[in-house]
Amino acid sequence: MSTSSRSPQVAPDPTPEALPADQGPEAAAREREIAVEQRVVDGAYGELDRRLAEARSALRRTEARGASGTHQSRGERDAYAVHYSGLISTLEGVEERLVFGRMDMRADDPAATEAGGSGGDADGAGAPPPGDGAGATGAVGGPERHYVGRIGLHDAARREVVLDWRAPLARAFYQATASDPMGLVRRRHIDTRARRVLGVEDELIDISALGGAGSVGGQPARLAAEGLQGEGALLAAMSAARDGRMGDIVATIQAEQDRIVTAPGTGVLVVQGGPGTGKTAVALHRVAYLFYAERERLERSGVLLVGPSRTFLRYVEQVLPSLGETGVVSTTIGDLVPGIRARGAESAATAEIKGRAMWARVLARAVKGLQRVPDGPRPIVVEGTALELRPDDVREAMSRARRGGKPHNLAREPFVLWLLERLTDQFAAATRQDASDPETRAWIREDIRTSRDARREINLCWMPTTPQGLLERLWARPALLERLAPELTGAEREALRRSPGSELTPADIPLIDELAELLGPSDDAQAQRARLEARRREELVAYAAEAIESQELGGGIVTAEMLADRVADHGPSLTLAERARADRSWTYGHVVVDEAQELGAMAWRALARRCPVRSFTVVGDLAQYSGPTAPSSWEQALRALGTSPSADGGRSPQADHHQRGRRARGRHGGRGRRVAQEGSTPLREEILTVCYRTPATVMEAADAAVASLGHPPVYPVSSVRDLPDCLRVDRVGPAGRTEGAGGTALEGAVLTAVREEMAALDEAVGPEGGRIAVIATDPEAWAARLAADAALAAAMGAPGGDVLRSRLAVMGPVMSKGLEFDVVVLVEPGRIGRASPGDLYVAMTRPTRRLRVISSGPLPSGLTAP
Ligand SMILES: Nc1ncnc2c1ncn2[C@@H]1O[C@H](COP(=O)(O)OP(=O)(O)OP(=O)(O)O)[C@@H](O)[C@H]1O
């Protein structure tokens, strides 16, 4: 086995531990500053505790009002209970690092006192800081000061204690630079843990306001760099061991990210960014920002977050609560339709076929195909009387039913009614009865409606069906599919073929959603829902009867039915997110889509229906597309959202823009921006180019590897840092050769690598710290092999089966999408890359510390030894 290891010529990360200890007067100044900030932080937590105590006691009082009273008063009580519970969750969610920054503004800067600046529950004025110390202001000469934190807090006298990070005034904290200070003199990052201030880091922004002084109050400060904000805090965040859950970045949002976070919520905002550029983080902070900026609208309509997998959604689930927001509905495309689970799997190629826009036409044809005019009159015998269903009557009934514009199953009702009337006329004439008498007509109609002949013939003309039933027929009957989808090749149709009763796959779900629109609820579905309701009511009554008996509540005053009514009357106590999640036709105020490059046109159509105002944040990376061929542009990928390609007729506008942008910006260059009014939906594109996760050596290897496979990233990124020995490539002999006790050479190398990386992590961050992922095309087999080693099996044992919680996880490249680990052990990258270059790109760019490649086959260049 040969091992190559490349170390860039860089110093290790300047983690706080690695910095030289302060000595003498500097250390004393530092301690003084920490003490000053500790008093402020104590004040902020005191305020948080006060608000929490108030909310808890309000909730207790509300709940003590009991379940009695009028329907309206119960509704009000439930609404208050939901409100206070939500408030408590919000306040509990912001406990960690409640305050993380301080802004010293120029005393003469109008922005410092601008009305509404502190936002949230603030009254707007930039108030004098509580617990101020003379040493904190020093040479600045009494500037306005604001403490920036997760939520806005005021004291009982309505003085600002903490400025909400989303307030307009707080933009300077994230965006001010020496060349554009935005009224900011100094930016301070305050590092806290469990309510204790551990350190402060200052950046001087506006040196002129200090009269040229290089330090403030004896506290050393560095001049603000034009590139990164809060570099020390940023590098510390990037170097921290991963714990299986994404953290927020609220303390260190960079200027290019902040501009995206706070962009207006209208229209479609596309954020294209290479691996680790903070797209997910930015999207989540943007949700929190939009809730702040448009609270009234979004609290009524809600926000939908779409992620690539349930694992990914668990990975990010802590971020929004830590930003004080809890009301977001998160889902995968596979879980988009309430009550339907996609448990099946299929190849990326088959999923791609199902995602194509043509299905809108094909499915419309399929539904129309359920409405048929018979070739000739169809005989029907009702109570011994011979009638016929005539093609002309069917045609007329159809055109009347379609006129209403209702979906198929709902339009069936007027269709059937009209035909019943015609058959009633025939029956009355044949039996010489008075067709003008309403009573006579009613019983004749009922006889016809319940006759088997009539039911069968009418159903053949207008078949009621469910989305699942119709889709199953489409996949199971090749002749039907060929008739309805001549656009597909024979091989494509064959790929779609599936036997009846097979599990639905995630790519089926947008098709089910489309069919649900076209079909509407079927009688069957309605009847099933009614049956479920009835059963639930029976259970409730039984439960209530038991409760009455066991607690002696009865005495003739409370009946089981009354009690059941109260228990069942839980409508208002559901949160908005719970109601939205359960309702397929819910329309959201904003939709955020992560890993958006994966969605096909049908998924976009389904999402467009959920947000008719087309307020979207779409984040993704075309180079991370899972499959053989990525979409060539975001316009192409998003066409189904109602955005049309621009009329330049040639090269993709993004690529065009990107080319120009890359020429214009430096290594840690800025962003791209294009605003276009396309179709009816304004589309705006931002590009992130700085990678905060992956060390530069690994990132460059990933770029080279996919380029050598013919897919160079159109939007490459530059990493903010590099680490020594962050890329190791272990080449082993042919996979079949045995080595040692029974395993192949490849197995031996993987086992060794995992053990070595565990030991290295033990040393770097402690025995429980950090996360390692083994990424391979056949994860189950590798998990079984690794589990044969007791220590590795223990490291893979996830509490509650949550793969993100285990220190060692084994997964395929697609599952690793959006996640990150301290170390990735990547098995046979050549095989992954040949199947899908985007998957290789994803897998190679997951680590924050080291990529360890194990290969027995040919390697893409970038991974070959130098
Ligand atoms: N401003 C920042 N401060 C601190 N950490 C940051 C910042 N921006 C991004 N990060 C960190 O970088 C890592 C990558 O971020 P994120 O997952 O959002 O990137 P991404 O663009 O969605 O990546 P990918 O497409 O590769 O999944 C995360 O650990 C995130 O916390």
Q: What can you see in these coordinates?
A:
With 866 residues, the protein is α/β, with parallel strands linked by helices. A 7-stranded mixed sheet has the order 4-5-3-2-6-7-10. Strands 13-12-16-17-11-19-18 form a 7-stranded mixed sheet, with helices on both faces. Strand 23 and strand 24 form a beta hairpin. Helix 27 packs antiparallel against helix 32. The protein is globular, with a radius of gyration of 32 Å. The two termini are 16 Å apart. About 10% of the residues have low confidence.
Biggest β-sheet: strands ordered side by side in the sheet: 4-5-3-2-6-7-10
Bound molecules: adenosine-5'-triphosphate
**Low-confidence runs:** 5-22, 113-141, 645-678, 735-741
Strand proportion: 15-25%
- How many distinct helices? 32
Assign the structural class, choosing from mainly alpha, mainly beta, alpha/beta, alpha+beta, or little secondary structure: alpha/beta
Q: Main sheet, how many strands, which sense, barrel?
A: 7 strands, mixed
Task: Indicate the radius of gyration in whole angstroms.
Answer: 32 Å
Distance between the termini: 16 Å
Shape: globular
Count the strands?
28
Helix fraction bin: 40-55%
Mean pLDDT, rounded to whole units? Answer: 83
